[in-house]
Specification:
The complex is a heterodimer. Chain A has two helices and no strands. Chain A is an all-alpha fold. Chain A has a domain of about 35 residues. Chain B is mainly alpha-helical. Chain B has one domain. Chain B is built from ten helices and no strands. Classes of the chains: A mainly alpha, B mainly alpha.
Chain lengths: ~60, ~280
């Protein structure tokens, strides 16, 4: 095991800013990309649902 | 496989298993052919079923990679803990180049065979490729400051990687600027294929020029010049990024397919099946 304690782990031997700055931005951007894609698909489907609803009402 | 797919995307599994997929666009029917998945309405549900599998693989592999990188791999004698950035820096840099080749490949296929889905695949890969290119530069900068003493230097490796980011941006901006999707695909393909010359330049830059960036620590020809556990962490992380990229590209290609085929009958059927 490399770390004596959790605070030792978070300190990263004095390089906390660089290490966590790298890992934080990476994880943050990957998660953001997935969220944006899920929102994008939901928006398309909501739009399609509205169009279908409007078309059905128009026919009646 | 269908079980998990059904759990997450019931409408997609139904589309595939019921055989209701309007797959035949002139492709020979009868025998199951992989070519049928080159049509957007047939590929759409298949992508939906595949996403949770690649997504799960990505989470598991990245988790294992983080564990290896932080808890198994030892502290580097020269760089201390700052070296742990390489567990995401190197895989991100590999993905940035690999995804560009994938994008250029699909763009080229679309240009030659004039298949609709190929252009959509190229467009779907581009933003994820740009993301990994940015991450390679970002993590490299954060590694360079404590190790080299500088955030940035205009050496061949760093400069050609920055050009790769601009190539991705150029591809996306060009496609966004052209109204007609098929014409956007063609113009983008020419740009993507021309820019592909930059990928070998990035890769071999550390050999061809005298760069501050170090040479490759991992090559196909010789044993890696690092501890086995460090090497393992990097490889597992790279596999995780690879699976993530596939999942993200499939999610995006589903959006692109829906956006481009909004008015078609099969999209109407799909929306109906969701209710």
């Amino acid at each position: 095991m490399n770390w004596a304690s959790w605070s030792d782990f978070f300190a990263m031997g004095g390089y906390a800013f660089y290490v966590w700055g790298s890992y934080g931005v990476t994880i943050g951007l990957l998660v953001t990309e997935v969220i944006l894609l899920v929102i994008r698909k939901r928006t398309i489907l909501e739009h399609l649902g509205r169009v279908r609803g409007a078309a059905r009402r128009g026919m009646q | 496989m269908m079980a998990v797919g059904f759990f997450l995307y019931p409408a997609d599994s139904m589309f595939i298993s019921s055989g209701k997929t309007p797959a035949s666009e002139g492709w020979p029917s009868g025998k199951a052919s992989w070519f049928k998945f080159s049509s957007p309405p047939a590929f759409f549900p298949l992508a939906g079923v595949l996403v949770p599998w690649f997504g799960t693989a990505a989470v598991l592999l990245c988790g294992a990679g983080l564990y290896l990188g932080f808890f198994v791999a030892p502290t580097d004698q020269q760089q201390g803990e700052a070296y742990r950035i390489i567990f995401i820096h190197v895989p991100a840099a590999w993905m940035s180049m690999f995804l560009y080749m994938v994008m250029a490949f699909w763009a080229g296929v679309g240009l030659v065979l004039n298949t609709r889905l190929s252009g959509m695949m190229a467009s779907a890969v581009a933003p994820t490729g740009a993301l990994f290119t940015f991450l390679a530069l970002w993590t490299g900068s954060l590694w360079g400051k404590p190790t080299w003493g500088t955030w940035w230097v205009w050496d061949a490796r760093l400069t050609s990687e920055l050009i790769l980011l601009f190539l991705y941006f150029g591809f996306m901006a060009l496609q966004a600027a052209i109204e007609d999707a098929r014409r956007a695909d063609k113009a983008g393909a020419v740009l993507a294929l021309t820019g592909a010359i930059n990928v070998p330049i990035i890769y071999f830059s550390v050999q061809w020029w005298n760069t501050l960036h170090q040479g490759a620590s991992v090559s196909l020809k010789s044993a890696p010049t690092m501890a086995a556990t460090m090497f393992a962490g990097m490889i597992v992380m790279a596999l995780g990024f690879w699976m993530y990229s596939i999942a993200a590209a499939l999610l995006r290609v589903r959006c692109i397919i829906l956006e481009r085929e909004l008015d078609s009958q099969w999209v109407g059927d799909y929306v109906k099946a969701l209710r």
